[in-house]
């Protein structure tokens, strides 16, 4: 009897692992990236973003070449975000005291220079 309960518990645990945790109308057959490997199956649209294994593998190639992880192009503590458009990254400079494509331009001093555009990255609230 003890072995039967153990087997039943194991079956229930494995079954819960594969349960779909979203509305049935929000499910699809597709692929996702898990631990830098494409895995295809059935699940939530939000998880299974890629329709085919080829689409998933193309996205995975992009992740492996993430410029933000290989060679962070953002300066002065800016946060690098990988994007699909060239040059493949965007720097978030808020709170660094710098702005520009690579957080490479010092924020202007408020009140100095008339007519200068004050970048939003330089606004401290």
UniProtKB/TrEMBL annotation:
Keyword ATP-binding, does the record have it?
no
Please list which residues make up the signal peptide. 1-21
Keywords, alphabetical: Disulfide bond, EGF-like domain, Signal
Q: Name one Pfam family in it.
A: EGF
Superkingdom in the source lineage: Eukaryota
Cysteine disulfide partners in this protein: 74-91
Domain EGF-like, residue spans: 64-104
Instruction: Extract the PROSITE patterns matched here.
Output: EGF_3
Instruction: List the InterPro entries hit by this protein, alphabetically.
Output: EGF (IPR000742)
SMART domains with a match to the protein in the record: EGF
**Disulfide bond as UniProt keyword:** yes
Name of the featured protein: EGF-like domain-containing protein
């Amino acid at each position: 009897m003890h072995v039967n309960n153990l087997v039943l518990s194991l079956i229930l645990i494995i079954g819960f692992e594969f349960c779909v945790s979203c509305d049935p109308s929000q499910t699809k057959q597709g692929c996702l990236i898990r631990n830098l490997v494409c895995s295809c199956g059935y699940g939530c649209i939000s998880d299974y973003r890629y329709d085919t294994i080829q689409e998933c593998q193309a996205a995975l190639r992009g992740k492996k070449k993430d410029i933000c992880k290989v060679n962070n192009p953002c300066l002065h503590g800016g946060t690098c975000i990988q994007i699909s458009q060239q040059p493949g990254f965007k720097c978030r400079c808020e709170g660094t005291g710098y702005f520009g494509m690579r957080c490479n331009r010092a924020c202007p001093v408020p009140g100095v220079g008339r007519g200068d555009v004050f970048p939003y990255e330089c606004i401290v609230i």
